[in-house]
């Protein structure tokens, strides 16, 4: 991940509803959730939720699949791993391989 993409991801997560969405989808795991289910769970109107989902998807933190007329969203753990790797790339005196076990542990492979 480069600096520009890291800034997009951090900006996306810096808004309360979007942070709640990401955390909810992490909790949902491999099943993900339909857009309407996410809105209901967080009591957010459809148009507002749609905008927030688009921001998170653009930032690489969510992925989605279409199911007929509905869209199912999932936390993109590869995107989160990329963000964490970017934030920690110079850790341990410039030896990021020492931090890899930590990144792998906190960013599950869902």
UniProtKB/TrEMBL annotation:
Pfam families: HTH_20 (PF12840). One of its GO terms (molecular function) is DNA binding. Keywords: DNA-binding, Transcription, Transcription regulation. CDD domains: HTH_ARSR (cd00090). PROSITE patterns: HTH_ARSR_2. SUPFAM superfamilies: Winged helix' DNA-binding domain. The keyword Transcription regulation applies. InterPro entries: ArsR-like_HTH, HTH_ArsR_DNA-bd_dom, Metal_resp_trans_reg, WH-like_DNA-bd_sf, WH_DNA-bd_sf. Residues 1-95 form the HTH arsR-type domain. The keyword Membrane does not apply. Signal peptide: none annotated. PANTHER family: ARSENICAL RESISTANCE OPERON REPRESSOR ARSR-RELATED (PTHR43132:SF2). This is Helix-turn-helix domain protein.
